[in-house]
User: What shape does this take?
Amino acid sequence: MERMMDLNKDDLPLMANTGHMLVKHYVLDLDASFENRIIAGTIVLFLVTGDKFKETGRGAGEECCSQSDDACRDGTSEACHDLHATILRAHMSNTGHKDFAVSDQGEEECFHESGHHGNSEEPSGISSSKSSCDTEHHGREDFVLVLDCCDLSVLKVEEVDVTAVPGIEKYAKSVGLIDASERLRNLRNQIVSELVSLSADCWREQLSCYAQCSQAPGCGELLFATGPWSLRIRKAGVQTPTNFPHAIRIWYKTKPEGRSVMWTTDQSSRPCVYTVGSPINNRALFPCQEPPVAMSTWQATIKASDCFTVLMSGENSPEPLPCQEGLCSWFYYVTMPMPASTFTIAVGCWEEVKRESSIKDIPFFPDHEHRLVKQQCGHMEYPCRLRSPVAEAQAIIPHRVFAPLCLKNRCEEILLPLLPQCLSAAHATLGTHPFSRLDVLIVPSNFSSLGMASPHIIFLSQSVLSGNMDLCGTRLCHEIAHAWFGLAIGARDWTEEWISEGFATHLEDTFWANAQRLLHEEAKDQKELKALLRWRRLRDEVENSEEELQVLR
Assistant: This one.
């Protein structure tokens, strides 16, 4: 059975069986209720079969697909296409059936909890319980999808009938000459497989299809069980990841005490909630796959009272849309695959800090060339800015600054002028910014760090606004550096996170020296002084800290 974690001793349990199934995209539709201090709604997961299962062998369902592909190649593809159209038309006229009952009581006895507490994904998603949960299949055990989950109330899990989306049949291939129910299941999974594998040039079409599929009706509730660290989902009679539903919808709500988000008040005593970069990451915000190797994209619609501003990790800068009386919705999306732990949200009465229109951002290019040699990208396919000549020439990406009302003037005086200088200095050193825009938010005083970088958004402590510009500029440069090292490039394992921090710490000195327009000797002296101070601080920490506190977990 899963056990509770001692944050002072234990590693974070990574339960998700990413080797068997991998989430490629999340669609969130959530409401933020400050009255109840909960975030509630749905999340739709689009999945593919994982590499480990592909390596160990194909399931029976895959063999059927292979046979049908051969039939299409033999000249029956037109007949197969007609067959799919017939299936879709028939099914769209009757999509309200319920195949399975949901249960969150009594399932714990059926699902084997391994108690795995390492820094890698759980080795197997196949239930190894001695008591059979599936008596209809002569003791053969159902495949179990395991997601990282904590401090959430899961209400319902269901398969999504993506075939109900008008026009979706163009993503369907042959599903073979098998019985109707199996054919329909394979059709749904093939549609999802085709959708997630669309080329980077089709990202707008892909996002639109994700949105439509996320609103499609359910076609059968799935069995699930929750533990302290995981959500386990199965479909009766399905023994392989290949045959497991590739699109599932989870209805859930957070808990006020959930450790992924902080419900608090800002420095102007107005309510707010934000992700705090906690030791348990985002698993108390939504069910997900936490291992850093689990890369996914996402899109999210967040509803909140019209007095709030919703900031989030997203490539776009949305305008709020009135959806109900007194409520507005905000829509964000991300097309660069990243770990779910980098998802960030902040909802509050934030004030946007704007400068006078007469002041312009002036790019800074140093006299000597620091920029790295541009190379061909070798990452997975997505709409990459590094290949865009327009993005390459953009020294200062679009940016906004938000803060509580009482700190607005201080941000206008210190932070706002520094931001374009630091962005330009980073571009002069490393080239194209990995992300298309940036929001900077001064978070509440209970924030436990000086800063935290996430895709398209940086959280800064109010402490950086004290004193002169040096502290603010240095910290801003550090967090901007994480766009390259920590986000666009990251460690495969959290115990190696020091690598990202090392690069960001090194680059903050280079960025800040460039932003200050220091001469070469001045920049060298400043870097040497900071290096000495860091060495002394590290030496003191090692001499005065217990050995177990000196090891990353």
Observations:
- The CA atoms of residues 483 and 489 lie 8 Å apart.
- The domain at 350-356+386-517 is CATH 1.10.390.10 (Neutral Protease; domain 2).
- The first helix runs from residue 51 to 56.
- Confidence is low (pLDDT under 50) at residues 58-138, 358-373.
